[in-house]
Every structure is written in structure tokens, then in C-alpha cells.
Amino acid sequence: MTEIQFADYETGSVVFCQHNGALQSDPARVVRTFVWDLCGKYPVVRKTVEKVRADDEASIEAFRSLIVSGLNQLSSETQNPVLLVIDALDECNPATCGQLPTILTQTSKQLPSFVKFFVTSRPDEIIWTAFNTLEAFSFQPTSTENLKDMEMYARHKLSHILNRSPNDVDSDPAAIAGLNLFVEKSEGRFVRGRSVSEFLPSSNNLLPGQMDSQSLLESIQSFDTGPDNMDKQIMQCISNGATDFAEFHRILSVVIVVLEPVDPVTLAALGG
Questions:
Q1: C-alpha torsion 148→6→23→64, nearest 10
Q2: 20 class by beta-carbon count within 10 Å (0-12 exposed, 13-18 middle, 19+ buried)
Q3: What is the pLDDT of residue 37?
Q4: Among 224, 216, 178, which residue's Cα sits nearest to residue 199?
């Protein structure tokens, strides 16, 4: 996405946050990674950082003294735009997230105009409140753009299942019908699309490449939309017919629900 949307930018640093890793969910790592990457790319930033010692690496002062001061040494006349990327900000440890939202929404305003942030996150309350005053926007699973992405994903996956090229898929009416139905029944949620595509062959006791387009279409037709029906069928494929659906439903509901805000009643119903 950054390569397409920000083709004229230099990528200064990219940080991927992960909730299930102590290091990857540590907010201080965001600042440390930015400092390390920027020092490696820009000697003037390294010289500035070498003169500074910051004890609290996740603090506003550390960001200001290390990153803001360093990047302000770059010349706006000769420097290409610089992009700083944070993926999955919501997966930073909420107990230690500390001043990161303030750093990204307030202190970052002291950066030169050619430095931009690109941040992705689920709309957690603290993060959404902090960023809502900026140029933040929300992708909905059923938005036109997301469904177009799902269609490309489905074409790739189904061509693999059928062991045919994407052009062959587009020329087969049954395959096209299956593709369109796949997109519709996924409801724009890639976690469902991936699960369905991985277990379509196994639900027919076949290996990828052994299904024909009509069998593919009929298999996709057998998946009903809605968490109860579709998730149960996926779970049974995964577990070879096991029926302990409650726990699977509870886990997958979390993945589905966090994609967009829901009211407490809906959340309780989906979470079992």
C-alpha cells in the first residue's frame, strides 16, 4: 500500500506491532526502531542522536529530542518526502501504550512538513479519539474498495484450487459464479475468505488442483453467511468434523467483531 500510495516518498522506517510478542507490543520499540532506521539512512540524524541521551525511550521528550531534532536537520530544499509507518498500532500493549497517541498526534507536528506518518489500527476508543481530529478514515469490510481487494484475493486463491491461470478462471462461467459468490459470502472479511479457500478442497476430500469449477461453485454455495452457519462449517473442516463449536465461535467472533465498532448487545451475542 505504501509503495502505491506514497511512491514519491522515501520510507524512513516501518514498525510492525504484534500483540502476542513482548517486544513487538512494546511502545518504546516504536521510538527505538524509528531512531535506529533514521540514523542508518540519514547521517545528520545520527550526529544529532549521538549528542543526546534519553532515559525514557517512549516519552514525548525522547521523541522530541531524538527524532524531531534529528529530522529537522534535514534540508527541506533537497530532501525527498519521508514516510514513517506504524502497522497495527492497536496491538501495542494497552497497559504501557503511554504517550504514543500524543506523540503521533501532537508532538509530531513539530516535525518538518516533508515528514509524514502512515498508521494503521483497529478503531480502539483511545486511538480513534486521538486520531479523529486528524485525517483519519475507517475501512469498512463491505466498502467497494475492500470488496475489490477481496475479489483479487479470491481470484488468486480459486485459480490455485482449480490449478488454472486467472485468465482461465475469468473465461469459465461456473468459476466466475463461484468467485462472485465467494466475495459475497466472505462479507469482506479476509479471515473468512482465507479459511474458506484453504478448506474448500478438504471439505470435498480433494487436494488443490483436483476440483473442477462446478464442484467449486457447489461447495461455495453450501456455505451460508452469518457467523453461526459459516464459522461452524469452517470449524468442522478444520477439525475433521468435530462439533465443539462454542469455543471456536468465541475466538473467531473476536477476530470478526473488532473490525468495526458494535454495540454491547451485539458483541455479547456474537461472543457467546
A1: -140
A2: exposed
A3: 93
A4: 216
